[in-house]
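Input.
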Amino acid sequence: MSYDILESDFNKKLSTAYQLSILIGVDSLVYFAFDTNNNNVLLLRAIPYTQSPTAEGFSLTEELKKIFAREDLLNYLFRRVKITMPDVQPVLVPARLYNEYEKTTYFTELMTHGKVETIQNDEVEELALQILYPTDSGLINVLKKQFPTAKFYNNTTPFLLGCRKILKEETPQNIHVHFTQKSIYICLFEKKNLLFSNSFKYQTAGDVLYYILLTYNQHNLVPAQHSLFISGQILSNAEIFKTLFRYISELKFVAFPSFLNFSRKFNEVPAHFFFDLYSLALCK
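Output.
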């Protein structure tokens, strides 16, 4: 699925006033820019890779190099560049327990991956959290060469900050799920306080239903009474959505976030599709 929206207000001579946000997906790169002076959204482009990720010889770094070479807009100088890294499961550590020199230990004790060479951490002050995740040094090098001042984040970081920003405080508990092509991210807030966050790989609608109902059950939430807020790569005609609808009373797609200003041109894009990309605006 590709999108190409460019507002007439976009001015390459003023790009140093813009934030560029990039989502490195499984089969495409999506980038987005807004003016930091007024939060007006200026462009959104989704660019499929030339090869399928399952194809023999597929190289993510080579795909990105091709995109950088042909996308003029990605070669402008931006005020800020923020990038979400490919889909990897993070470890969340309360800030009060975090020790920079022990981050490899936190990760290896809680995760089942093999040897981890590089671990990145996102500090989320609003939630008093450190979010740890493995990174590919080769990929980081390619990205830093193209965007020397870029900051990198795990998908969980903008997702949690975005959910906290849009939640309805009059609702005691707010449960959200975000879909990527291979994973779901689930979080539960009580007012502004994060009670639960986790991510899970899935293959079937049954997998998704299991993890979501498990979250409801573990926190004594009743599917017939508590709405589920949804964002990411899913539509209402998908089998996953239809399955969830049979068990949960109300499914709500999130709207375009109010902390950014979208024009009518963006009506062609489902508002919930790139919630994590938009929420990079909240990351420090």
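Residues 1-85+139-153 form a domain with the Nucleotidyltransferase; domain 5 fold (CATH 3.30.420.250).
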